[in-house]
Design brief:
The protein has one domain (6-211): Class II aldolase/adducin N-terminal domain (L-fuculose-1-phosphate Aldolase, 3-Layer(aba) Sandwich), CATH 3.40.225.10. The relative contact order is 0.15. An eight-stranded mixed beta sheet has the order 3-2-1-4-8-7-6-5, sandwiched between helices. It has five helices and eight strands, in the order αβββαβαββαββα. It has 212 residues and is α+β, with helices and mostly antiparallel strands. The radius of gyration is 17 Å and the shape is globular. The protein has helices spanning 6-25, 88-98, 109-117, 155-165, 187-211; strands spanning 35-44, 47-53, 67-71, 102-106, 123-127, 143-149, 172-175, 179-184. α2 packs parallel to α4 and α3 packs across α5. The structure holds zinc ion. The site of zinc ion has 6 residues, from loops.
Length: 212
Amino acid sequence: MITLSSEQKQHAFQQLRSIKEQFAARHWFPGTSGNLSVRVGDIADGQFQFAITASGKDKSVHTPEDFLLVNENGVPTDATSLKPSAETLIHCEIYRLTGCGAIFHVHTVFNSIVSELYGDQGYVPVQAVELIKAFNIWEENARIEIPIVPNYAHIPSIVPEVTQSLNPSIPGIVLRNHGIYAWGADSFEAKRHLEAFEFLFEYVYRMDLLRK
Ligand SMILES: [Zn+2]
């Protein structure tokens, strides 16, 4: 296991704290839902560590028990009484598949409704909306398909669905009627991607209403 410095850990916790505060202000963590993680240190021989929000905490307040460090299997690497979120395994898989630096997961009304609306088809289609550029897709009239995977109560069963459906050129995946995982090279980019996805989901939702 790679040894991380105390500064590296503190820096990661500080980043998560700042993102947590901003997303909480947008009401993106209803009922203690959602989770945030930032990778700390490099990925070496498939091994890595990341800081993640602890399970079941009210994310609208700051406490000393908000975050913990886990390894690529979702197992805590420091002595702690905190439990990682049940969904940590999905973070592990996204880090493994993409090599990204940060992953943010939120439940919103728009991502839930749109994922249900398009769930049978397996993706949310979006075309020619300016914010697609937030994903570094610059072509005119670009059309993207945001993957949707089934949501199971048994989290380990969701992992192979993510493995199968994740599209490396789209930095997000939606769990049907549950929420989105968005990621990026660092927390700045992951936040930009998540904001763009949420804009696009609201756009799709409202456009669908107008067309009826
Ligand atoms: Zn969730």
